[in-house]
Amino acid sequence: MGFGYFITIGVIVGIYIILTLSLNIISGYAGQASLGHAAFFGIGAYASALLTLKLGLDFWTALPLAMLAAGIIGAGVGIISLRIKGDFLAVTTIGINFVIVSVFEYSDFFGGAYGISGIQYPELFGFKISKAYYLILVFVCVFLTALFCRLISKSWLGLALETIRENEDAAEASGINCKKFKILAFAIGCALAGLAGVLYAHFMRFITPIDFAFPISISIVCMMVVGGIGTIRGGILGALFMAALPEILRPLANYRLLFYGGLIVLIARFQPQGLFGDNPILFRKVFGGSLSSARGEKSGVPGGRK
Amino acid sequence: MSAILRTERLSKFFGGLRALQDVDLEIRANEILGMIGPNGAGKTTFFNTVCGVYPPDRGKVFLEENEITGMPTHRIARMGIGRTFQIVKPFLNITVERNILAALGKDRMKGVSPALLGIGLEKSREEVRRLLRLVGIEESLARPARTLTLGHQKRMEIARALALKPKLLMLDEPFAGLSQEEIRPLVQVIKKLRAEGITILLIEHNVPFVMEVCDRLVVLNFGEKLGEGTPQEVRSDKRVIEAYLGS
Amino acid sequence: MLQQLINGIITGSLYALIAVGLTMVYGILRILHIAHAAVYVSGAYLGYVAYLYTQSLILALISGAAGCILLGWMIQRFLYTPLLKEERIVPLIASVGLYIFFEDLFRLLGGPHIRAFTVKLWFDKIAWGDMVITSHQVLILIMTAACLAAIYLIITYTRLGLAWQATAQDMDTAKAMGVNIRQVVNLNFLIASAIAAVAGVLSAINYNSILPTMGSVPAYKMFAIVVLGGMGSIPGTIAAGLIIGMAETIMSAYFGFIMPRDAIAFSAMILILIFRPEGLFARAR
Fold first, then answer.
1. How far is the C-alpha of A72 from the C-alpha of A94, rounded, in Å?
2. What distance in Å separates residue A157's CA from the closest CA in chain B?
3. What is the largest CA-CA distance in chain B?
4. What pLDDT shows up at residue C284?
5. C94/chain A closest Cα distance in angstroms
6. End-to-end CA, chain C
7. Which of B100, B123, B152, C247 is least enclosed, having the fewest CB within 10 Å?
8. Which H or E run contains B59?
9. Which ipTM score applies to this complex?
10. Model confidence at A277, in pLDDT bands (50, 70, 90)?
11. What is the spatial distance between Cα C100 and Cα C95, in angstroms, rounded to a whole number?
12. What is the DSSP letter of A120?
């Protein structure tokens, strides 16, 4: 367990933070069901891998293009969300995840079940960014993503997304073009997931379709829920907690999944607002008193809804 | 004679049901027009058709000189029609201030890049306060909308509609579900709005209020316009009396 | 070709049996009950153990059903009902966590490998020309038809069924009209879990295998069927199950190169939803 181990954990945690924050834009701010987010994680990864390996582009050119690809397909899902709603949309996003992963798995263009290997580390002025420097790169991306999410939550766009989440009819009646903003939420959220994918591909340097399958989407949703839906702080801490969990549970060896599943059930059952969102058990014990839910950078806690 | 809103032969069918049939209506500037009629007469359907919730099957709608027939709701809202809902629709989990801002920012929400601008709270807060003061709930500025009473939520909804700086304010049963104590202050609010020169179309079952406040009334029954005129004229119209007694 | 049709109907029947349980839970609780797959697998394992000791298929089915009824009741009572007032995503996450838990539990208790679940019936197979129906397939046909017909009759013609329909349409109104919601919820879960168990046993017998991960595909694929059937509509789900079962079998037999079998259900679902966003059949009537 050397330095390299911690770097790996750090990179993976960082990637998951970006994934959770990006999902938060779609599900937390705009309130749209999206249970197949890992598909866009995969689109970013595969796009960057193919652009660098098959077209010879360098990392820094491939990055925005891969994000664009994920964003455009995400916008497509956004368009679908205009027609298919609620639980139907939830299951549709699961289906999209399955279909996209099937495409990766079944076509030789994407390397089939064996995936794509030999992806290179990024280079900057001839200097190869690997190991600790890669961690810095990831950290920068996490920071920028969190900053961007904060910008959104404080902006008119964030307000528009919130109104869509709360009550679409009222939002329309208030002059907000719900269709446009829904598509935008999906586009932005999925593009950021694509960013996470690029970072993943060039760190692992080897990607396979199952890296982006439905269980990963569920993990991301879990991180968002455990951390507290709708808050940036919750997204970061939730991802940290859940990504660190497999390592914390390592001593339990054979019983890891058992505890993982059990923990999710317990958290969902007894602390559904999340551990780090508003009014959580942890915060109450540590800081005393409940946090007001209508403050600065947060977008409010969605209450019980049918 | 300036008509703020004008409908020509407005019709809407749901399958075999004729919810609206050939309704011609004119709302003049600065007046309060009351729309009354038995339940199911088509009043809310009229609202929804005018506001773009669904397009009419026949007929046209004009906002001042512009035809708005079939336009999407958000565009009509921007062009100047603010409405409230029969069952109030607040943005529950955000503050009252943000509820109002949602409508206040209509110019900012038009494009993508302006939408990314931060909400200049200092600049907008004065305007939000003014609107909340108008409806009498200024002290609730920072509270989440879900903590408000129904009466206050209805007032917030009116303030939200007013934030659009509308040419026409459409209120759908503003008193529905309110107790007597809650109704009285709301009546004052509506009278105050009228004094400010705002054109109002409202649906209401509360007859004494309607008689007292409205300049004119229009009566709907089974989707058709049964009659219109001053409250006195309408009250003595035989067909109207029949419609109400018969239902 | 005809052989494929028969295989497809068999697969479709099993799908329908599992999916109907899911749709029943959704119809009443509006929860996406991913843990239903855990109940399905539990039924298979319980039945397997019972058969090991009694060599009786009937007892295997009964013990599977009984155990799952208990399991289902516990899930409903301790996990779902308390979470009804929360965000919709929360019971979904709880359900997923529960499935992960159970899948690992089966692995720990029963071992990670496939075990054979061999049940010999009184005849081996029926051959008709070059078509073959195995005894297991006949059993599946008979039992699923019986179960589904029973459920359909109960829902449509009994007072309980009426209460079910009312609750599915609008729980608050039904409660106001005097329907005993708790009873409806409990019975609903009871029936759904019981038929999941039956499906589990039948499935294990048919493929002569039982393993901890046998629920992972049904866990998600069944939702494509439930959605296609109109989310809460029992006849719709039955039809959707059969359609998907046949579509899968025929497509993978003749066009296997286009896409993997498991992606067919979701692809069909997405395509159809785009044209009919409410599914093929409207919700519970």
1. 18
2. 5
3. 58
4. 44
5. 5
6. 36
7. B123
8. strand B58-63
9. 0.90
10. low
11. 9
12. P
